[in-house]
């Protein structure tokens, strides 16, 4: 099989599956080509593949699916088995207290998942809640929710790596997202963080592994080093399953 034909055949299989059909073709293609390119032994077998029933085809397909799940691109929290992917249902009180300090009205929630469904809107005078997620199913759920509750919210399906961050916000949430945006290193994560215009940015990470075990070192040293290098003050709040970095910089958004 030609590489292109192979990729398109894999793509068709992914599109037929409910869990993957809500992702853009380009994202699915990327995952397939990543598996092909990162594994030379797989590449060598490509010309021997005659049909989609071949063992090799199935192997690539399952690796592409695993990659999408690992990036949490195929993400349905209520179905998630791992506490690191399950929704938290509420933002912890100490984090909400930090948010309250700046009396915010404009929120942006990146890689929102189902977070918009659990946000305590009544605690704040919300003028705008922009929720961004790459998964169209999640975006639809959030928009349906905003509409049914009359919340000034908007959910947008987009890849935050290619998002235009011109709008200014009071608070930006980067909950359980930054681990997922880079294949190696933290360049894209830093690019997203520095592009955001907000008075307060809250970054969080799961502190449990996919199998549910507590991580030996739950804090993310790379974030702490990045924030110190960029000369930002931050506060750490740890809960049972998550670590939050609250970075406030009044002035940056102006
Ligand atoms: C682990 S979940 C966290 C969800 C939510 N922020 C929370 O804390 O419960 C990661 C979310 O980020 C989304 N996501 C992953 N990569 C993304 C990207 N490049 N652009 C936009 N959303 C992304 C996934 O679809 C998923 O909903």
Provide the gyration radius in Å.
20 Å
Order of helix and strand elements from N to C terminus: HHHHHEEHEEHEHEE
Can you say what the CATH homologous superfamily of the largest domain is? Vaccinia Virus protein VP39
Which class of secondary structure composition applies to the elements? alpha/beta
Instruction: Return the CATH class of the largest domain.
Output: Alpha Beta
How many domain modules?
A: 2
What is the typical, i.e. mean, pLDDT?
A: 87
Number of strands: 7
What does this structure look like?
With 254 residues, the chain is of the alpha/beta class. The chain has 2 domains: 3-74; 93-248, 3-Layer(aba) Sandwich (Rossmann fold). It has 8 helices and 7 strands, in the order αααααββαββαβαββ. The protein has helices at 3-16, 25-38, 40-45, 55-70, 93-100, 136-149, 187-195, 221-229, and strands at residues 106-110, 128-133, 153-157, 169-175, 198-206, 234-238, 242-248. A 7-stranded mixed sheet has the order 3-2-1-4-5-7-6. A hairpin with a 3-residue loop joins strand 6 (234-238) and strand 7 (242-248). The longest helix has 16 residues, at 55-70. The protein binds S-adenosylmethionine. The site of S-adenosylmethionine (SAM) has 23 residues, from strand 2.
